[in-house]
User: Which sequence fits this backbone?
């Protein structure tokens, strides 16, 4: 299934849900407490880039706006997002999304618009406090503009629901590092995408079905303990002990990047001669590892503070934390997870990605591991060159 | 007439070179003594100045590299390192000139001991300084001032306040120094004095003919950006204001025959300042721009506490840290106060924070003020992205609309 | 078939030209053919194969064939596809094992690669989407200067003072060149400036990968003497040019076909 088909499927699903009375709220930046939105009786819907949308941004945005922002703006111009009752834009994550949010409000004055501003640079306790207050304001805004209050009962339920999903995919992520053949990267990416697009019982069931298959296999291979340990250390962002992965035919590749579409990357790898389903053993992408490995929501303290704490503890985007912390984690991965090659994705005109790419690449090659830079946009408009890059990289890995 | 040019040169400009020279020497000294910090243009420099940490500005160095017309080459050095041409050209030439200082005659900065970034001008600064940190080993301190939605809220103020306090701690431990109230008060007084003088000079341009043109302001803004908080900065603006007031009193314009008054939006193309002089020949003057008006908040207080509060307020509320509405309001205000006929928006490919939204604000500004505007595309440093013929056609068409 | 009778075919279907090479088990080239790719890549494959057949007078049925280039995936008879990155490296290494760096500039794309001691690519880089730094850029500029693409290089070499073409975007550079003509600059100096701009673009790609001598240049643009001159200056080293710089990708593919089957 191509990402275009996947998005068509979830679009259909969203339409059905909306017709049956389910209220949907859209968001763009993946580091958002889903539990908060669910506690207001909304289904949080991650708005993906649509690879098939044709540009409709030109009247409002210059071409040097980030290609992801251009894409979502075009979707709105083409009226593709009408099932959503409101939109949550991130603030202080990058200049493109910051300004596109402003432009959106002018161009679509009737949209219900919220801005959740994130702290940048990793200011610790003060950052948690700031984000907690932002979440509280968002919560009040939802109540005021969309009419449903915050329910603690719903929060509890959704904390459990979201927690179950995350736990399942965390286990699968860790299991694939030990044996990437246990399930393909594209299946995992699809399960994650399915849930983030439509976090319904069905999506959870799909992820959990995948989990039980993986659990069974890991159990049979005697890996359960090491998978659980690895999953826990990924959640803590501390990879300090080497793992012993199962032997496979394909090289072990990690994909780094920001708000690029994991299923697109999976498909690119699968469609490339010499590339296989299991070649990608891990990703560090926004719509993958970075959001999936978020702490479970604790219900002990002030809910907004707890949500802020969990959100800021995850592996964030470049603006939200300093580079060194990110490089340290990467080094831990490279030295302990038997990695053969690294692909660094760069979204076209994405400042945070493009600024970080050279540092990531250097860090990888300094560890003696080959790296490939993959400049791309959500439309994969340069597909033949992308697959040329990937195929050449695989050939380089095979001969080296 | 002794001067045949269509524009008049400021006498105060001669002083500028002295200031720039002095600033360069001081920065070099500071670097050798181990107390040089690179800062972003919206950083509260009153704090490092008061703590005897000398600040210098990569953005200004970028402008100098741009003005020497070596932007493409120096950007190229960063491209060689794997940075894409799509990134901010200030950052690119900063990274490029740090990598190959010997290939950059003017505009490569002495080695920093700390990198102080404030994201009130854009989100790019953190990543840029992170890159420089990798190259120089100097630690980065980010003063986070999240973009404002309307008025500053109490939790925003509290957050920025805690950031300012941590900045003082950071400087204290990094440079073994402390913030003394008396010195702090002195610096902030000098800073606000310079700012008042500067804004008074800007205000004189409301008169017709305007005593200053765009390029005059872009050049004479340098000290208020780099040296506010020092005595010589105040002295420079006293001299500038005197000259400007003098011109205004005598009805002497920056442009010999002022016919059309335009607003300039965004950073200028540093490699093509002659562009403004070419327009001057047609009687076009730019009495106001959004760029040089950004340095207008005076830090005033009576003790450390109140000065820090003022810093939190002023530096959170800078022009680029506010939304589109605030930018539109500012432009409309300038158009009204300075009695302008049309506006030119320079869409700077490097600066997303400044430029994205111009298509929309152009429509709103015209709707509100009734005057026409034009968007031209290019870059402030990287001349590879500046198509002069295309730009001239657009401006000419705009002029035909108002004359 | 005996081992010494083994043959290999390499097909390099590029965006502008399509190339084919037939070799025997010793690596000797029995036949080669080059033509425009044209609108239909499959048709050009057919005509290359029949040309190889005609020259060699051999029945090419069931011979190991490797395809490369942008059209590599449309070649139905190919036993395997390998990218032109690897193929150029293999081809060049056989011709000159010393080479450690290859610059390949074709009609619509350009690549640089650094070779390891095994003669295989250790790192590589490609141009981005835009056509700056490719043969296409030179074609557009030749048209603006009203000379043929073959005349452009020799014209540039006559220049004593190349002018600066700062835009690397083809569209922008085109209007810049028009502006230069208007300003009265000579076609010689403009042509030199165009080559200089192109060499600097390729130089930037090369430095990202890390230049290592000896350097080799391949692709259609390798035949342009002015480009070689300015690129050699830009990279700070002599350039080695193979006899048929456009065929090395196909040649590498043919070697790989032999090696693998």
Assistant:
């Amino acid at each position: 299934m191509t990402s275009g088909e996947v998005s068509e499927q979830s679009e259909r699903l969203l339409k059905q849900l909306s017709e049956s009375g389910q209220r949907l709220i859209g968001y763009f930046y993946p580091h958002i407490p889903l539990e908060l939105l669910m506690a207001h009786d909304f289904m949080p819907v991650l708005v993906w880039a649509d690879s098939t949308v044709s540009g409709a941004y030109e009247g409002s945005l210059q071409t040097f706006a980030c290609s992801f922002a251009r894409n979502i703006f075009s979707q709105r111009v083409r009226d593709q997002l009408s099932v959503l009752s409101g939109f949550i834009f991130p603030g202080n994550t990058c200049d493109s999304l910051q300004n596109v949010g402003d432009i959106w409000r002018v161009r679509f004055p009737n949209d219900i618009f919220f801005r959740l501003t994130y702290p940048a640079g990793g200011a610790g306790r003060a950052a948690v406090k700031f984000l907690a207050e932002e979440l509280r304001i968002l919560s009040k805004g939802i109540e005021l503009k969309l009419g449903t209050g915050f329910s603690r009962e719903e929060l509890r339920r959704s904390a459990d629901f979201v927690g179950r999903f995350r736990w399942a995919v965390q286990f699968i992520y860790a299991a694939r590092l030990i044996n990437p053949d246990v399930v393909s990267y594209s299946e995992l990416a699809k399960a994650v995408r399915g849930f983030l697009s439509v976090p319904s019982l069905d999506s959870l069931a799909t992820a959990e079905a995948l989990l039980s298959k993986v659990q069974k296999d890991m159990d049979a291979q005697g890996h359960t303990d090491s998978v659980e340990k690895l999953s826990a250390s990924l959640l803590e962002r501390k990879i300090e002990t080497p793992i012993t992965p199962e032997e496979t035919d394909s090289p072990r590749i990690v994909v780094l990047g920001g708000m690029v579409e994991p299923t697109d990357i999976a498909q690119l790898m699968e469609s490339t001669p010499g590339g296989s389903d299991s070649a990608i053993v891990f990703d560090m992408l926004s719509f993958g590892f970075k959001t999936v490995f978020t702490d479970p929501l604790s219900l002990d303290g002030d809910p907004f503070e707890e949500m802020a704490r969990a959100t800021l503890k995850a592996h964030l985007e470049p603006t939200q934390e300093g580079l060194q912390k990110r490089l340290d984690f990467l080094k831990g991965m490279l030295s302990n997870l038997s990695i053969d090659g690294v692909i660094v994705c760069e979204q076209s005109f994405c400042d945070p990605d493009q600024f970080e790419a050279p540092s990531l690449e250097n860090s990888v090659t300094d560890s003696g591991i080959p790296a490939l830079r993959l400049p791309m946009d959500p439309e994969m408009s340069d597909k033949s060159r992308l697959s040329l890059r990937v195929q050449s990289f695989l050939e380089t890995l095979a001969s080296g | 007439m002794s001067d045949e040019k269509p524009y008049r040169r400021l006498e105060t400009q001669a002083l500028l070179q002295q200031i720039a020279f002095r600033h360069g020497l001081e920065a070099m000294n500071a670097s050798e003594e181990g107390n040089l910090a690179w800062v972003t243009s919206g950083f509260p420099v009153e704090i490092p100045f008061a703590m005897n940490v000398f600040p210098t500005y990569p953005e200004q160095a970028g402008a100098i590299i741009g003005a020497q017309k070596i932007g493409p080459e120096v950007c190229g050095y960063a491209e060689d390192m794997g940075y894409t041409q799509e990134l901010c050209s200030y950052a690119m030439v900063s990274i490029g000139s740090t990598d190959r200082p010997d290939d950059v005659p003017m505009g490569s900065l002495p080695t920093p001991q700390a990198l102080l970034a404030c994201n009130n001008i854009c989100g790019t600064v953190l990543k840029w300084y992170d890159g420089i940190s990798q190259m120089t080993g100097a630690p980065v301190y980010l003063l986070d001032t999240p973009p404002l939605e309307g008025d500053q809220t109490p939790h925003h103020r509290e957050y920025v306040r805690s950031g300012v306090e941590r900045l003082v701690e950071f400087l204290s431990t990094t440079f073994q120094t402390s913030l003394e109230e008396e010195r702090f008060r002195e610096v902030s007084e000098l800073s606000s004095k310079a700012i008042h003088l500067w804004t008074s000079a800007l205000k004189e341009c409301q008169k017709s003919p305007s005593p200053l043109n765009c390029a005059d302001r872009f050049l004479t803004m340098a000290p208020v950006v780099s040296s506010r908080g020092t005595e010589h900065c105040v002295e420079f603006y006293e001299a500038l204001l005197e000259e400007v007031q003098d011109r205004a009193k005598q009805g002497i314009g920056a442009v010999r025959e002022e016919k059309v008054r335009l607003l300039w939006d965004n950073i200028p193309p540093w490699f093509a300042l002659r562009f403004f002089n070419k327009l001057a020949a047609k009687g076009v003057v730019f009495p106001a721009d959004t760029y040089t008006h950004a340095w207008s908040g005076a830090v005033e207080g009576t003790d450390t506490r109140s000065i820090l509060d003022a810093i939190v307020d002023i530096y959170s509320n800078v022009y680029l840290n506010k939304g589109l509405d605030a930018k539109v309001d500012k432009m409309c205000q300038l158009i009204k106060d300075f009695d302008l006929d049309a506006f030119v928006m320079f869409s700077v490919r490097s600066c997303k924070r400044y430029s994205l939204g111009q298509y929309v604000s152009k429509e709103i500004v015209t709707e509100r003020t009734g005057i026409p505007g034009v968007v031209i595309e290019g870059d402030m440093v990287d001349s590879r992205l500046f198509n002069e013929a295309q730009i001239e056609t657009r401006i000419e068409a705009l002029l035909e609309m108002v004359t | 078939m005996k081992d010494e009778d083994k043959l290999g075919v390499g097909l390099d279907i590029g965006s502008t030209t399509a190339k084919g090479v037939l070799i025997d088990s010793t690596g000797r080239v029995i036949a080669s053919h080059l033509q425009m790719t044209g609108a239909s890549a499959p048709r050009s494959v057919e005509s290359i194969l029949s040309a190889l057949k005609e020259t060699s007078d051999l029945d090419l049925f069931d011979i190991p064939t490797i395809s490369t280039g942008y059209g590599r995936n449309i070649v139905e008879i190919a036993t395997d596809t390998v990218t032109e990155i690897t193929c150029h490296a293999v081809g060049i290494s056989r011709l000159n094992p010393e080479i450690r760096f290859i610059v390949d500039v074709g009609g619509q794309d350009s690549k640089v690669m650094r070779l390891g001691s095994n003669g295989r690519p250790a790192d590589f880089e490609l141009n981005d989407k835009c056509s700056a730094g490719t043969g296409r850029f030179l074609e557009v500029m030749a048209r603006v200067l009203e000379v043929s693409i073959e005349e452009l290089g020799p014209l540039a070499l006559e220049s004593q003072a190349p002018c600066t073409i700062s835009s690397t975007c083809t569209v922008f550079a085109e209007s810049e060149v028009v502006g230069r003509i208007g300003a009265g600059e000579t076609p010689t100096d403009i042509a030199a400036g165009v080559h200089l701009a192109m060499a600097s673009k390729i130089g930037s790609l090369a430095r990202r990968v890390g230049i290592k001598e000896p350097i080799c240049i391949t692709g259609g643009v390798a035949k342009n003497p002015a480009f070689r001159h300015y690129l050699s200056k830009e990279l700070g080293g002599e350039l080695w040019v193979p006899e048929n710089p456009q065929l090395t990708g196909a040649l590498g593919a043919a070697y790989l076909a032999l090696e693998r089957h």
